[in-house]
Design a protein that fits this description.
Distance between the termini: 67 Å
Shape: elongated
Number of helices: 18
Number of strands: 15
Oligomer: single chain
Radius of gyration: 36 Å
Largest sheet: 10 strands, mixed
CATH class of one domain: Alpha Beta
CATH architecture of one domain: 2-Layer Sandwich
């Protein structure tokens, strides 16, 4: 095994005798050759055993040989039992054993460090099992990223094994190149990526939006982290969304704080071999979200933008959000969705003109590739399904593009048409002055009707222009161009004096709004598409 050198022999002997698998031994020797980790487990084990055997044969031929270090003691002396060659529980450590025992170690055992992750779970059978799960889910993808979740106690076992290596090298008077190893996750991906890529027929790509993940657990050793909670209680704090305080991050944080001597009081070094392999609890697939944008018109005065549910009871049977999303969910085969829009209208307000911009995030979609013709047919299917809404300019967009819908919302303008009633009779000349008012400043205290979901505040808003249209003695229509976010209903009736000025105060009579339409939302996103 050309990647190993003379300085690695004590580490190999120690770990092999302790029950560490060949791939973990390579990690602790900082072997960076990815190809070497992909060699079969049995082949690697034989190579390590031969590596030690060759060394023993050399010693027999040459007699007692000392390694090239500053004033090193002879190997025979090093292998003799010394007072400091006893660990905290009084047992003779593995490095004091003879070479024959080391050669016999590790074979057929569950690795005492990775708990089998770099053993059984690198084999072709497990790779096929993962790929069967992926293929059965029927996702569309052109690449994948592989992630793995490991039991937190693996970090504890790695620390114990590394302390054993450090103590071994110190006892032998040998220098340790650096206080580091190849990370288990990194080595596992070196092994598993080529196999998954070949089986799935697509490359592994760290930037891919399609993720294949495996979650490992090892119930037999779950309690091995618990001593850290006593030693470092500040690292383990309950969280609402966590079932256990012993998360990987908490354990790693505690291991950074605990001193070596305190650690050795509670945990064997090197760690002992478990009876059972890890369990692959979950094999999951997840596709990155797809975003669809467009504009909608709402023609009903009895349709909310989003589901209207109060105290768990649905008030109306449908919503704009649902009428659009049900078709997208079915075609994209997504798990769920998130709807957003450039403002919102009340349940009794229509949205006319070129419509209101909206975007839908489709979470974990199975299908992600759509042609322009397919998107047009999808838009038509939405429009054919209901006379309450219509959708236009439906298109696939990026996550970053959605930000443009929310940019400078308060600087945007919106045009409305309001049917207004007055208690006192009016003539055309009574309302004509409204046409001459420009840039009217309003102070709007949070309306009573939305106070349950909006913070109490006074908002300054602008009415840019108004144009009146006389109907009869008690009715007229008012066309308004306003700053986005203006409460139009409250501007008409005054909301018990919470909006000042208002149409009632301007006309010096009681006014109320009977109908309201949004005639345009002046936004340049999403881009207009040709019919």
């Amino acid at each position: 095994m050309s990647s190993l050198t003379e300085k690695d022999r004590p580490i190999v002997q120690l770990l092999l005798q302790a029950g560490t698998c060949p791939r973990c031994i390579l990690r602790f020797c900082c072997v960076g050759s990815q190809v070497l980790y992909r060699h079969p487990h049995e082949e690697l084990l034989k190579d390590l055993q031969q590596f030690l055997k060759n060394h023993q044969e050399e010693e027999k031929e040459e007699g007692t040989v000392c390694l090239a270090v500053a004033d090193p003691p002879c190997k025979r002396i090093r292998l003799e039992h010394r007072e400091d060659d006893v660990n905290h529980n009084g047992a003779v450590p593995p490095w004091a054993a003879d070479g024959k025992t080391a050669l016999e170690g590790s074979a057929g055992k569950v690795c005492n460090v990775c708990l089998g992750v770099l053993q059984e779970f690198c084999e072709a059978d497990f790779v096929r099992k993962v790929c069967q799960k992926v293929n059965s889910a029927e996702y569309q993808f052109t690449s994948f990223v592989f992630s793995v979740s490991l039991p937190p106690q693996l970090s504890v076992r790695e620390r114990a094994a590394w302390l054993g290596v450090k103590q071994q090298m110190r006892n032998l008077g040998l220098p340790l190149a650096k206080d580091d190893t190849i990370q288990l996750k990194e080595a596992y991906k070196w092994i598993i990526h080529p196999q998954l890529s070949e089986e799935l027929g697509v490359p592994a790509d760290g930037k891919s939006l399609f993720e294949v993940s495996v979650v490992f657990a090892h119930p037999e050793t779950d309690e091995e982290c618990h001593f850290l909670a006593t030693a470092c209680p500040d690292c383990f704090k309950p969280a609402k969304n966590k079932q256990s305080v012993f998360t990987r991050m908490a354990v790693v944080k505690a291991l950074e704080k605990i001193k070596d001597e305190d650690f050795l009081k509670h945990f064997p070094c090197p760690p002992s071999s478990p009876k059972n392999l890890c369990d692959a609890l979950e094999i999951q697939c997840n596709n990155g979200a797809v975003f669809v944008a467009g504009r909608y018109n709402k023609y009903s005065r009895n349709l909310p933008q989003t589901p209207w549910i109060i105290d768990g009871e649905r008030k109306l049977e449908s919503s704009v959000e649902e009428l659009i999303s049900e078709h997208l969910m079915a075609e994209f085969k997504a798990d769920s969705f998130n709807f957003s829009s450039s403002g919102r209208e009340d349940v009794d307000v229509r949205t006319l003109g070129n419509g209101r911009p909206f975007a839908i995030e489709l979470v974990n979609p199975r299908r992600i590739h759509f042609s322009a013709d397919e998107i047009r047919r999808l838009q038509q299917a939405i429009n054919d399904s209901s006379d309450k809404i219509q959708v236009r300019d439906l298109q696939l967009v990026t996550r970053s593009a959605i930000g443009r819908m929310k940019e400078g919302e308060e600087e945007k303008t919106k045009t409305y048409s309001a049917l207004i009633w007055t208690d006192k009779a009016i003539q055309r000349e009574d309302i004509a002055f409204l046409d001459d008012i420009k840039e009217l400043k309003l102070d709007q205290k949070t309306p009573l009707r939305v106070l349950h979901r909006r913070p109490l505040a006074v908002r300054c808003r602008l009415i840019h222009t108004m144009r009146s249209e006389y109907i009869d003695e008690h009715h007229f229509r008012l066309h308004l161009k306003t700053q986005a976010g203006t409460y139009i209903k409250e501007f008409v009736h005054g909301d018990f004096g919470r909006t000042k000025p208002n149409i009632g105060s301007l006309l010096n009579r009681t006014a109320d709004i009977l109908e309201l339409d949004v005639e345009s939302v002046d936004a340049d996103w999403p881009p207009t598409l040709a019919d």
